[in-house]
Every structure is written in structure tokens, then in C-alpha cells.
Predict the structure.
Amino acid sequence: MEDQNNMERFQAKIDAGIKIEPKDWMPEKYRQTLVRQMSQHAHSEVIGMQPEGNWLTRAPSLRAKKILMAKIQDEGGHGLYLYCAAETLGVSRDKFIEWLHQGKAKYASVFNYPSPTWADMGAIGWLVDGAAIVNQVSLQRTSYGPYSRAMVKICKEESFHQRQGYEIMATLAKGTKEQKEMAQGALDRWWWPSLMMFGPHDSESANTKDSMKWGIKLETNDDLRQQFIDKTIPQIELIGLKIPDENAVLQENGSYKTSDIDWDEFWNVIKGNGPCNVQRLKHHVKAHEEGAWVREAAIAYGEKQ
Ligand code: BYC
């Protein structure tokens, strides 16, 4: 009876758009869903530093290097806000990292692809951050207060990331024949993995129904993906590149119809068999172990204060 009353009050708050705060009563499944999604989101930000870190020492100019370095640092910062927000649900950061290293926690599948050229830095900023923004703008209104507030700050920084990526692509697209080919190659490589970032079709998405009811997700995977497609295809055309999908067609309602995603590839990458899964996790474990002394020193300093 008590639980039933709590549940009704909880749902009424969600329906009225009132945020749920850490000390408020919440159903255990709501808490678990947030722990899962927020920690995965944090891991994505941090693991996502790797494909770009690959180009830091080879950026084509000092200006390009400074911008890339600032962007990668921002991603690390996003991870920190999100870990802090997720810790308010009663799980420690050490636990989140342990789950990541044990393969129990996921991170965005898109970061398991390689970044072989400088144009990949453009494609990641433009498409990967662009896809993330569409999702995160929606998540600014999510029902859990700490997650929603973290998203507001993150979205401001992601807009800059998206623009710096598009600038790289636009510059290459109006450069030499080789530069234009490099830009097209990166677009071809990152287009489909970026569309996969939004998750499986709504009909296959196990978590969407509960997440929508509880206001964790405000829009479905397919709706957000479509928004990204409709926003991005005109940007591809504007810089004279080719849409990596021969079947993409503008419909009368102003929205694009596109080919379906290769879902076998998506699930295969999620299961750990993407081109870079092993490398990404191994690198994270190594960096974590090598950073142990920094964490110890920070704790010792904190205790002395
Ligand atoms: N990759 O029921 P569904 C960034 C999993 S980083 C991997 O639809 P949900 C950036 C899903 O977890 C920003 N796994 O799930 C950083 C579930 O498995 P579990 C990244 C995926 O949670 C550096 C299963 O598939 N953004 O911007 O309702 C450089 C069924 O899916 C993926 C976020 O993390 C995927 N793509 O919806 C540049 C956004 N898709 O957990 C840029 C926050 C699905 O039940 N997350 N799965 O075992 C979300 O919005 C949602 O969690 C998702 C999935 C839309 C991703």
C-alpha cells in the first residue's frame, strides 16, 4: 500500500514536470535505469577521447591542435560531470569503472571505429557530436535533476564541438582533389556508426517504454535519429559532399527517407567485436592503472586539508 502510494506520487511528479532529486523516493527500476544510462553516457564521453587523441600530435597546424586539445579536454570534463551526477544514485565511481573494465557496462558503439585520417577529426566533431547534441538537447528535460542539469552545460560545449568538426570538413571539401576525397572517406566511415548512436529501432528497444513513462527519455530512438538525418543531409549537400546512402530521398513532408542500418553490425560491435573494442578498453585500463598515484595523491591532499 505504502509502495503504491509512493508510486502514484512519483508518477504524478513526473507527469507535472517536477524533477526527481537524489533524496526523493524513486522506484528501484527507475534508479537502476538511470545508473545504467548515466554511467554508460559518462563512459562514452571518456572512451570517446581516444579516437581524437590519436591525432593530437599530428594536427596540421597549431590552431587546429589547440582546438582539438580543448575539445578532448571538454569530453573528459563531460565524463566527470556525469560520473558525479550518477554517483548521487548511490553507486561509487570506482564501481562504475570496475563495471566498465569487466565489460558489464557499455559505452557508445561509435567509439569502436578507427580514425585513420585528419578528416576523421572533422567527421567525429560534425557527426558524432552532432548526433550527441540531438540526443542531449532532449535529455536536458530528463526527469532526474542532476542528469538534466549536467546536460545543460554539456550541450553548450557540444555545439562548439559540432561547429569545429564541420569547419574541418568544409575546409577539406573545398581543398584539393585529395583533400575532398579524404573528407568524403571520413563521411562514409562515420555516417552509419553515427546513426547507430541513437540505438535500435523503437520496436526493438527494450528500455524505451519505461524510460518514456518515467520521463528519462523524452523522445524515442527513431524520432531523434530522424531529426539528426534531416538536419545533417542539407549540411552534407552545402559543402558539396555525397550522401553515403544512394536511397536517401527527400519526402513531401520535408523529412528524408533513408536505407535501413546494418543492425548485424550494430549488435556485433556492442557484443565487443568492433574494429577497436579490445584496443579501447585495454587503453582505458592502462591509463586507469597508471593514474592510480594521482588519485592517491588527491585523496591524501584532501585528507590533509
Ligand atoms: N552504443 O533499449 P535501448 C559524445 C544498448 S558521447 C552502445 O534503446 P536505451 C562524444 C543499450 O544500452 C555521448 N550500446 O536502450 C564523446 C541497451 O543495452 P543494455 C554519448 C547501445 O538506454 C567524445 C540495448 O542496446 N551519448 O558525445 O533506452 C567525442 C538496447 O537499447 C547503443 C549517450 O550516451 C549504442 N549506440 O537507449 C565525441 C546518450 N544504443 O544497457 C562525442 C545517453 C543502444 O540494456 N544514452 N545500446 O544492456 C541514451 O540516450 C540511451 O541510453 C540510448 C539507448 C539512446 C543510447
Observations:
- Residues 36-37, 40-41, 44-45, 48, 75, 106, 108-109, 124, 128-129, 132, 135, 196-200, 205-208, 211, 221, 270 surround benzoyl coenzyme A (CB under 6 Å).
- The first helix runs from residue 2 to 15.
- The mean pLDDT is 96.
- The CA atoms of residues 168 and 241 lie 13 Å apart.
